[in-house]
């Protein structure tokens, strides 16, 4: 009786997996897919790909390895993930990766490339990101959590994008730029310098337009904190201070107000290598 029930259970599991993977999909034998993964028609999943539980791959998606994709992601048709980096220094090295976390929505025609040896070997996308159609995330980019990439936004190589950043449609980001947490890029912005946390920018070349007040309210920042961040913005952009002078004044403001939200801003200014948008 036990052997019969076990055989029936195995048959049910096999049928379930077969129903979740369309017969026209091509999956390399070395790819590791959780049994709950859905793969649509004509999708191609290559060697060295790992995909976590409950991730849905729509039709005509191409995923090459080495690529690791977490759980509960939804990847729409015609996306291309994990292909070779678009970098002339890339010479076919095998130990480069793309890593995608959990609960990301990756829409039509998105492209994400693996990293390069020179850049640390990995392109990484965190959790809970909304990545709209025609977005490009290049080699060696590091993307945090809860970001939004509107249609056509593109990040060149080695870009760092922290948590809760929003990129308006057709935003372009130059290599090695750093976008701080809760910053906001208006549609069509071209970013050549680092964007501090909480700051809104727009234009070609992008210029600052205050703090991301509405976004901060939606994420639970209270009025006192938002007011203090507005003071910090004025210190950086309205007082004709150099960056070291602004850091000094921001440190004093933090000591006066005990506002913890100032710490990431000070740290960002201390570690920015390209300089900030002005």
UniProtKB/TrEMBL annotation:
Involved in the biosynthesis of lipid A, a phosphorylated glycolipid that anchors the lipopolysaccharide to the outer membrane of the cell. The keyword Repeat applies. It is found in: Cytoplasm. One of its GO terms (biological process) is lipid A biosynthetic process. SUPFAM superfamilies: Trimeric LpxA-like enzymes (SSF51161). Residues 194-277 form the UDP N-acetylglucosamine O-acyltransferase C-terminal domain. Pathway: Glycolipid biosynthesis; lipid IV(A) biosynthesis; lipid IV(A) from (3R)-3-hydroxytetradecanoyl-[acyl-carrier-protein] and UDP-N-acetyl-alpha-D-glucosamine: step 1/6. PANTHER family: ACYL-[ACYL-CARRIER-PROTEIN]--UDP-N-ACETYLGLUCOSAMINE O-ACYLTRANSFERASE, ACYL-[ACYL-CARRIER-PROTEIN]--UDP-N-ACETYLGLUCOSAMINE O-ACYLTRANSFERASE, MITOCHONDRIAL-RELATED. Belongs to the transferase hexapeptide repeat family. LpxA subfamily. Homotrimer. This is Acyl-[acyl-carrier-protein]--UDP-N-acetylglucosamine O-acyltransferase. Signal peptide: none annotated. One of its GO terms (cellular component) is membrane. It catalyses: a (3R)-hydroxyacyl-[ACP] + UDP-N-acetyl-alpha-D-glucosamine = a UDP-3-O-[(3R)-3-hydroxyacyl]-N-acetyl-alpha-D-glucosamine + holo-[ACP]. Its EC number is 2.3.1.129. Keywords: Acyltransferase, Cytoplasm, Lipid A biosynthesis, Lipid biosynthesis, Lipid metabolism, Repeat, Transferase. GO terms for molecular function: acyl-[acyl-carrier-protein]-UDP-N-acetylglucosamine O-acyltransferase activity. It is an enzyme of class 2 (transferase). Its main location: cytoplasm.
């Amino acid at each position: 009786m036990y052997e019969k029930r076990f055989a029936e259970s195995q048959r049910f599991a096999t049928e379930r997996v077969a129903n979740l993977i369309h017969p026209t999909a091509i999956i390399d034998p070395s790819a590791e897919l959780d049994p709950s993964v859905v793969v649509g028609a004509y999708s191609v999943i290559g060697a060295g790909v790992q995909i976590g539980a409950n991730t849905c791959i729509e039709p005509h998606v191409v995923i090459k390895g080495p690529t690791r994709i977490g759980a509960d992601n939804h990847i729409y048709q015609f996306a291309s993930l994990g292909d070779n980096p678009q970098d002339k220094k890339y010479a076919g090295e095998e130990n480069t990766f793309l890593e995608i976390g959990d609960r990301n929505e990756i829409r039509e025609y998105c492209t994400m490339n693996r990293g390069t040896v020179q850049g640390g070997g990995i392109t990484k996308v965190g959790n809970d990101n909304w990545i709209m159609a025609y977005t490009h995330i290049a080699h060696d980019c590091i993307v945090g959590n809860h970001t939004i990439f509107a249609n056509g936004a593109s990040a060149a190589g080695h870009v760092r994008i922290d948590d809760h950043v929003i990129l308006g449609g057709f935003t372009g980001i130059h290599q090695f730029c750093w976008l701080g947490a809760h910053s906001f890029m208006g549609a069509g912005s071209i970013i050549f310098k680092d964007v501090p946390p909480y700051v809104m920018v727009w234009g070609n070349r992008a210029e600052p337009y205050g703090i991301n007040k509405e976004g901060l309210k939606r994420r639970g920042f209270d009025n006192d904190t938002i007011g203090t961040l507005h003071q910090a913005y004025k210190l950086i952009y309205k007082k004709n201070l150099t960056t070291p002078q602004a850091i000094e004044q921001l440190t004093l403001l933090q000591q006066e107000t005990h506002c913890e939200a100032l710490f990431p801003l000070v740290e960002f200014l201390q570690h920015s290598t390209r300089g900030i948008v002005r």
